[in-house]
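Q: Predict the assembly, please.
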Amino acid sequence: MNPTTLKLFQGIGRYGVLLALVALILFGWVRYENFLGAFNVLSVLRYNSMFALVALGTCFVIITGGIDLSVGSTAALGSVVAALLSPYGVLPGLLGGLAAGLAVGACNAFIITRLNILPFITTLATMLAASGCALLLAGNQSVSVSYESGFTELGQGDLLGFPVPAWIALVAYLVGSLVLNLTSFGRTVLAIGGNEDAARLMGLPANRVKALVYLASGGLAGLAGVILAAQFGAGQPIEGVGWELFAIAAVVVGGTLLTGGLGSVGSTLAGVLLLGLIFNILNFENGLGWISLSAYWQSVIRGAFLLLVVAIQARLSMRNEEMAS
Amino acid sequence: MAESATTLPPAQGAPRFDIRLALTRYGAWIALALLILVNLAITPNFATWQTLNVNLTQVCTIVIVAVGMTLVIATGGIDLSVGALMAIAGALAPLIFLGKLFPLPHPAVGIALAFVVPVLVAAALGWFNGWLVTRLRIQPIIATLVLFIAGRGIAQVFTNGNLQVFNLPSFQFIGLGRVFGIPFQAILMVVIVAAAAWMLRRTVFGRQILAIGGNEKAARLAGIPVVSVKQRVYLISGLLSGIAGLIVIARNSAADANLVGLGMELDAIAAVAVGGTLLTGGRATVTGTLVGALIIQLVRYTLLANGVPDAAALVAKAVIIVLAVWLQRQSHR
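A: Predicted assembly structure:
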């Protein structure tokens, strides 16, 4: 393979998710009326902002070479706490959900960095614990939020014509991107993922940075829970099942390698939107009346999509290895 | 008799009893024994045939799936798709014996096919996982995530998300039948555990699995057919998931693609971890996995039988997992 083709392949690897997203949007725009109408665009953004927040935390965790399976039930816990505190106002609800998420994140950070237990098994355990706490707090049923305090604005409201949850996600991604690319913390995150032992030997505070990453992932999941409660008017202890794997899929589709050391916040957002749009397009396609695919197809298509992306990535990295050797 | 890859030869001239080694090797068994003793003391009606049956039937499918998971984890992999494969097998079987998929010449043929086809399909999908891991060199967690996401969807599409209810004693024997009063599924579980434990300890295949998990590069250089061993391991995991799926639907007299095997991957991984198998591969114990699953089940039963809500039992399960893995780490320093 000549160098130009290699560059082309690498370019596809790097910007593939953006190309696919643009292609999907163009497809929808050409095929369906109102696809790019304000209503559809804003509701897609409103709904997917929760997943975007969770995926941002997962992105950082995966760049360090770890994994966080607890985000789904952490979001559920956050939604219950936020709903319970919502009668006291917007801020208590928001901070309560966030604090619940941070608490789970702190548990993860402690167990992973102090007890030296693998992230996979640690977050599997805290996933169960967070889910148990959410069910206990909620008394095994969903907790309705207060509609008087204005808490629901966090999920249903608009600011400057743009959904509030989408603003929250946007700010989180801007901050995340700046932190990863421009700060020494971000460099350390990448270094740990590249080679943790080397990072440690260079004197980088690997444990502290890892702890902060899991803390942030928990906090973002808690925030997603707040939005969940505000958007659907209830704290939902059994929601969030499978969110962690959806987030991992979004990060991987975005091109972040699961082996760590490489990744981008922006393409994670593109990954989330891509997986979210599949559902949206399925709805529009059904609306056309040519076919009638049940909502169950959604997960089949998402799975096929994930397969396609990882297969392409695998091919590309094999090619790169061949070129290098 | 936790079989271990790193069986140390007894040190020469030091026949004294090493308590740390004993704790490492028999820690899970000791915990299980303690749990049973505690229950005998505090739980009313614990030492009854019924209690045994309830616990056995609840733990059976987890153990069967966890045996496959143990082998996968022993090679340094993971299989997230087990629950989804259970759902596929569980959705396929009623479609076959109810004759919805193709006309049946005779009901008995339908039942025979309903046992064989779903399990083979699950095994084939397991092999597909292995193919992704070995040929495309995709990390196991991502490779099996594909079927985790898509698999349940496939089962739901098959059945259109509908509950399939049936009453067919000859098929349901796998989940409801008894031999000399013992649930057939428990016998199946014991046979599977024994076969896998023997295989891991005594056969070349078992040794190859552990060698790959210990150091894949070294195993390859030593001439071990890494690709084919790994593919077979994922195939076994899929096959066992298929069997577990059939047991679940037989027990419920109904197949619900939305629920069969939901969360099973996590239960199985938890059992493997508590049982003392190294999650990074290379050291595995099938009997340990059985004990791990029994411990988790018994703790939950103890709490429920003594009036603690199920949600609190989840928190207890989390603590057990972390504690068990942490203790294992301590003794391996």
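The two ends of chain B are 22 Å apart (CA to CA). Chain B has one domain: 52-332.
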